[in-house]
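Record type: monomer structure entry
Structure origin: computed from sequence
Chain ID: A
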Amino acid sequence: MSTVAYGPLPEHRADVHLPDEPDAPVLVYFHGGGLESGTRADNPKLFTELVAAGIGVVSGSYRRYPQARYPEFLEDAAACVAWAIENLPGRRIVVSGTSAGAYLAMMLRFDQRWLGAHGVGRDAVHGWLFDAGQPTTHFSILRERGIDPNRVIVDEAAPLFHISSETSPAPTLLVLAGDDVPGGREQTDLMLATLKACGADDDVRAVTLDGYQHVAYLGDDAGRARLIELVAELVRDLDVGGAK
């Protein structure tokens, strides 16, 4: 493992875990923690086992509450992805995250302005993995605004807000626990229905890991093995012909 700086701020650091294969696919991964806790070093067994399966990981830090404000964490996530694309050429790149990290990945997927600010086009990312993400406006952003974080709001800070007939299809894996957070299943179903209505649901797969609460499968050997199997299936046939 090596640690790199993907930008000028102290938070702009990423741990790079790569297999020996020079063309191994890479997950750019953002940790969970409600946009206020967690670190890029979370889930070390996941990273070790992904590398053993021939899949690299770039695990990025990002600014968090209480110091951060929307959209600083999105700006950081986009900069980390741009670094990976520039510095790991010729690899299949999957942008991914868990919980709050999946929210960041969703926003980068559906609101092109964040990656576009770095000159990264739609085809530069080859696949997407949303692990238990929130497709509505994140509850920590609602709290920042003084709004009840239990409310369900869809505005410019919600991935759902940006799905339209202009959204291009892309290989995408959504993972959810069988006993996830209240409303998580319903919000995920709404996102899937919206993608379908907009004609962007080709190559989208949603998988429920039964018997687990929110992201608890990451701490379980069998659950983690199943997740890695799903990731391997996602990356197996990804096209590397995309361009920035």
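Annotation 1: The chain has a mean pLDDT of 96.
Annotation 2: The chain has one domain: 2-236.
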